[in-house]
Amino acid sequence: MNYDKALEMYGSFVDQCPRFERKGKTMPYTSANGHMFSILNKDGELGIRFSKEVQENYIEKYNTSIIKSHGAIMRGYILITEYMMNEKDLVPDLLNESYDYVMSLKKK
C-alpha cells in the first residue's frame, strides 16, 4: 500500500478512537502514558504495540510479523497487513486494545 493511502487510512482509524489522537507530522504515531503504541513508517506500514503474549497470538492469528522501521525491529509491535487494514472495524479495535495495554504500564 502506498504511503498516502496508508496515512489516510491510519488517520481515519485514529479518528474512530476518541481517547487518543494522532501525533507526529513526518512520522505519524500515537502515544499515551509516555509510551508510543502505534506508528506509521515511511514505507506506509502500520505497527501496533501489544504485550508479548498478545503479540505472539496476533502474529499467528493474522499471519503477520513484527514490524521493522528504518531497518530496526520494533519489538512489541506487529505489522498490520493490508488485509487487516481493509477489515472495517479491526484496526480501531486493535488501537483501542493497544491503548489499554500502554495505560496499564508504568508511566514514563
Outline of the structure:
With 108 residues, the chain is of the alpha+beta class. The chain contains four helices and five strands, in the order αβββαββαα.
Protein described:
With 108 residues, the chain is an alpha+beta fold. It has a single domain, classed as Yope Regulator, Chain: A, CATH 3.30.1460.30. It is built from 4 helices and 5 strands. The protein has helices spanning 3-15, 52-61, 82-85, 90-103, and strands at 29-32, 35-40, 46-49, 66-69, 72-80. A hairpin with a 2-residue loop joins β4 and β5. The radius of gyration is 13 Å and the shape is globular.
How are the SSEs placed, and which strands pair?
Blueprint: H1 3-15, E1 29-32, E2 35-40, E3 46-49, H2 52-61, E4 66-69, E5 72-80, H3 82-85, H4 90-103
Antiparallel strand pairs: 1-2, 2-3, 3-5, 4-5
Number of helices: 4
Largest sheet: 5 strands, antiparallel
Q: Report the oligomer.
A: single chain
- Low-confidence runs of at least 5 consecutive residues: none
| Helical percentage | 25-40%
In CATH terms, the superfamily is YgaC/TfoX-N like chaperone
For the termini, the CA-CA separation is 33 Å
Order of H and E elements: HEEEHEEHH
Binned strand content: 25-35%
Classified by CATH, the class is Alpha Beta
Query: Under CATH, the topology is which?
Result: Yope Regulator, Chain: A
C-alpha-based Rg, rounded: 13 Å
How many extended strands? 5
Number of domains: 1
Instruction: Output the strand order for the largest sheet.
Output: 1-2-3-5-4
Structural class: alpha+beta
The residue-averaged pLDDT reads 95
